[in-house]
Amino acid sequence: MRVFDTERQEWAGSRRERLFHAEQYLDLPRQRNVLQRTAVVLAVCAVAFGTWALAWKDEPEPYRPPAEEGAVEPGVTDDGVTGEETTATPTVTASASPPSGFLDPADPEGFRIALPEGWSRESTPSQYGIDIVEYRAPDGIRRIQVFQLLEDSAHSSVVEAQKTTSKLDGYEKIHLDYVPDPSGNEAAEHEYTADELSGEPTAGSAYHVIDHRFEAADGENYALIVYGAQGDGTEDERALLDTARAWFCPPSMECPAPEPS
Question: Checking CA distances to 126, which of 9, 57, 78, 189 falls within 20 to 30 Å?
């Protein structure tokens, strides 16, 4: 092949051509090696890219456990519309009523209690907790007193109260001890008779009193004290107390109705 020599301004023959492009002929073996290596590298890259592309295409999705039949994912409503996840709030409703002749009014102090029909109510301020509430029968003798205890133990409170009560005229203790309570919490009771009670009219016979103190569902301690006349027996005071305690629910609480006895 002839080439034009710009320095001499003439066409050069094959020898001049080799001199003019000496590096092309001197590096020919090296160029072949470079071309071969380049071809190998390109082939390897092509294989690697093809393998990666196939692997990415067929990569499985992350495992998700199968949803139970009828289950709805959080944040998704039954119709598939995404929304806020809601939590149902349980509601306790009474499924029974107090025994015949009793009512279960919500007291203005916030608690619930079962009372015989026709009883009156009065209250006095207390130094601790709710007011002292007193319900009285039309006969003026039978009554139920409700108040909150300052002491953090029902038993210690009733023991302290017994120290004062024991000074009443004609006082006789029936029992003073821990007793079972519907809530399963601590409860103590002081049952006694006395000839007179401070500020109360004469009963015609000794008074029969059951002083029941207990820890309620709100963690606070309360007293339910039932007063009556001993002359007509003690069963009526016990029935009053058992019914009042079974239906008692402390302020700001929602309690189920007691099981029928």
Answer: 189
125-181: pLDDT as tens digits: 999 999 999 999 999 999 999 999 999 999 999 999 999 999 999 999 999 999 998
* pLDDT confidence of residue 25: 45
Rg (CA), the chain: 48
CA distance 59 to 51: 12
Say what the pTM is: 0.63
CA distances from 196 to 31, 63, 143, 224, 229 (A): 128, 80, 15, 19, 11
Which residues of the chain, if any, have pLDDT below 70? 1-95, 203, 260-261
* Residue 70 Ramachandran class (φ > 0 left, ψ -120 to 50 alpha, else beta): left
Q: How many CA atoms lie within 13 A of 100 on its CB side?
A: 0
Task: Please give the Cα distance from 188 to 158 (Å, whole number).
Answer: 7
CA distance linking residue 259 with residue 187, whole number of Å: 19
- Mark out the alpha helices in the chain (DSSP H runs): 14-20, 22-26, 28-57, 154-165, 235-247
d(CA 244, CA 212): 11
